[in-house]
């Protein structure tokens, strides 16, 4: 089965599944492989559950005319997504960055949907499987596509750009994320900049933060760009007015009051405002789009529970985002604070040094009781209270729940620190 033939079937069915446990009627099941499973073995089961077709890459499992054999299922999915992207011919904006990708994507989608029928990445499905699924979720009613791209090693963004072929793009920031895979901060910058390279080579258009010296330097000789800053030197002048606790900013005498905490979210909001401005969306509409967005999924959520105000930012963490979160936390009003900080993953040989830096920064927080959780934080040299595991923290806090406190919960996804909400 070639890509064009597969696309014809897809246009009839309009639904893709990669999980045989979640089959819907008339879907096309792609039998992907993982470290611990072989999707080919579930092809027959998928048909029995209602799938119209199953795509496999091992001939022994082709037991029906509705089981389609290809050389490699993952490659077939990616090629189908690229074929569909070309078939639609719509403008697509891709974004990447070390921190804030998903929040920024949601903000951009909220703004652009005021003018266009948009389709955006669902959640953080931003990898070599998620990007194809995002593209295949678009149809003839989609006027503008928004595709988030994640990466933890070199050439990954380049590969995803080859699938999505974005016309527009932006990078939220360059930070200390996935240092192990990228090979340090310089590797992060090179890896994320692959989006810039694609857009420049393909005559695409870049949106950027002119306050970021890395971005402004990389794009200084590029003409097809549109940026923002707080100094009045870029295309859009956006001022941060406050971040205690929610970000408030000003654009052309219009005040925008968001539901996002932390000055670090200024850049994410400003990027969405900048993009909306370029596409001639009226400022009142941009304001309404930003102000209607409420964070979810453990990302900068404010939760009022009993007498406490909880800042739940436990979806993920790296040294850059942890540093930003603590800086913001230190500036919040209130005389009683508690910080629960979990290990940061994928730091490789930098793990010990980066966890020690965060511990030392946390020691300087005023009016704040700090708890460090995880094997990396447990190995730091600090006077702060440390716990080797979440379970140890949980058992300790059962009878020691803070009251009348502002509580920050921050850690990598693998730590799942949001579990402590049951105790709080």
From TrEMBL:
Gene Ontology terms: biological process: cell division; cell wall organization; peptidoglycan biosynthetic process; regulation of cell shape
Top-level taxonomy: Bacteria, Pseudomonadati, Bacteroidota, Flavobacteriia, Flavobacteriales
Full protein name: UDP-N-acetylmuramoyl-tripeptide--D-alanyl-D-alanine ligase
Major place of residence: cytoplasm
Molecular function terms from GO: ATP binding; UDP-N-acetylmuramoyl-tripeptide-D-alanyl-D-alanine ligase activity
Taxonomic superkingdom: Bacteria
Coiled-coil spans in chain: none
CC terms in the record's Gene Ontology section: cytoplasm
Family: Belongs to the MurCDEF family. MurF subfamily.
Domain Mur ligase central stretches: 96-275
InterPro entries, per database record: Mur-like_cat_sf, Mur_ligase_C, Mur_ligase_C_dom_sf, Mur_ligase_cen, Mur_ligase_N, MurCDEF_CellWall_CoF430Synth, MurE/MurF_N, UDP-N-AcMur_synth
Keyword Cell wall biogenesis/degradation: yes
Pathway: Cell wall biogenesis; peptidoglycan biosynthesis
EC number: 6.3.2.10
The entry's keywords: ATP-binding, Cell cycle, Cell division, Cell shape, Cell wall biogenesis/degradation, Cytoplasm, Ligase, Nucleotide-binding, Peptidoglycan synthesis
Binding of ATP, residues: 97-103
Species for this entry: Leptobacterium flavescens
Reaction equations catalysed: D-alanyl-D-alanine + UDP-N-acetyl-alpha-D-muramoyl-L-alanyl-gamma-D-glutamyl-meso-2,6-diaminopimelate + ATP = UDP-N-acetyl-alpha-D-muramoyl-L-alanyl-gamma-D-glutamyl-meso-2,6-diaminopimeloyl-D-alanyl-D-alanine + ADP + phosphate + H(+)
């Amino acid at each position: 089965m070639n890509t064009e033939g597969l696309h014809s079937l897809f246009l009839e069915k309009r639904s893709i599944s990669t999980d045989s446990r979640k089959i819907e009627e008339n879907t096309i099941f792609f039998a992907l492989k993982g470290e611990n499973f072989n999707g080919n073995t579930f092809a027959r089961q998928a048909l029995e559950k209602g799938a119209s077709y199953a795509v496999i890459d091992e001939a022994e499992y082709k037991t029906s005319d509705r089981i389609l054999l290809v050389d490699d299922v993952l490659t077939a999915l990616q090629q189908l997504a690229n074929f569909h992207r070309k078939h639609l011919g719509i403008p697509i904006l891709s974004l990447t960055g070390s921190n804030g990708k998903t929040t920024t994507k949601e903000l951009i989608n909220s703004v652009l949907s005021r003018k266009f029928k948009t389709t955006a990445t669902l959640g953080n499905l931003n990898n070599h499987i998620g990007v194809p699924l995002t593209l295949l979720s678009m149809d003839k009613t989609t006027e503008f596509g928004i595709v988030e791209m994640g990466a933890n090693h070199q050439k990954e963004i380049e590969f995803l750009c080859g699938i999505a072929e974005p016309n527009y793009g932006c990078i939220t920031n360059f930070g200390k994320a996935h240092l192990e895979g990228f090979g340090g901060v310089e590797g992060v910058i090179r890896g994320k900049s692959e989006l810039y390279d694609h857009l420049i080579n393909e005559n695409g258009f870049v949106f950027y933060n002119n306050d970021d010296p890395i971005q402004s330097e990389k794009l200084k000789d590029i003409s097809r760009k549109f940026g923002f800053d707080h100094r009045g030197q870029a295309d859009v002048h956006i001022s941060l007015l406050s971040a205690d606790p929610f970000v408030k900013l000003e654009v052309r005498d219009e005040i925008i009051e968001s539901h996002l905490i932390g000055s670090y979210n200024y850049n994410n909001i400003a990027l969405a405002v900048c993009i909306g401005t370029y596409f001639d969306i009226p400022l009142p509409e941009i304001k309404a789009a930003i102000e209607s967005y409420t964070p979810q999924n453990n990302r900068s959520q404010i939760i009022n529970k009993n007498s406490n105000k909880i800042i739940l930012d436990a979806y993920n963490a790296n040294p850059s985002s942890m540093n930003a979160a603590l800086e913001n936390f230190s500036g919040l009003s209130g005389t009683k604070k508690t910080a629960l900080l979990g290990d940061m993953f994928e730091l490789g040989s930098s793990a010990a040094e980066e966890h020690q830096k965060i511990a030392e920064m946390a020691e300087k927080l005023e009016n704040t009781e700090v708890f460090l959780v995880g094997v990396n934080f447990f190995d730091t040299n600090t006077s702060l209270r440390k716990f080797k595991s979440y379970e140890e923290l949980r058992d300790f806090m059962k009878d020691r729940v803070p009251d009348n406190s502002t509580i920050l919960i921050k850690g990598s996804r693998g730590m799942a620190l949001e579990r402590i909400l049951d105790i709080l």
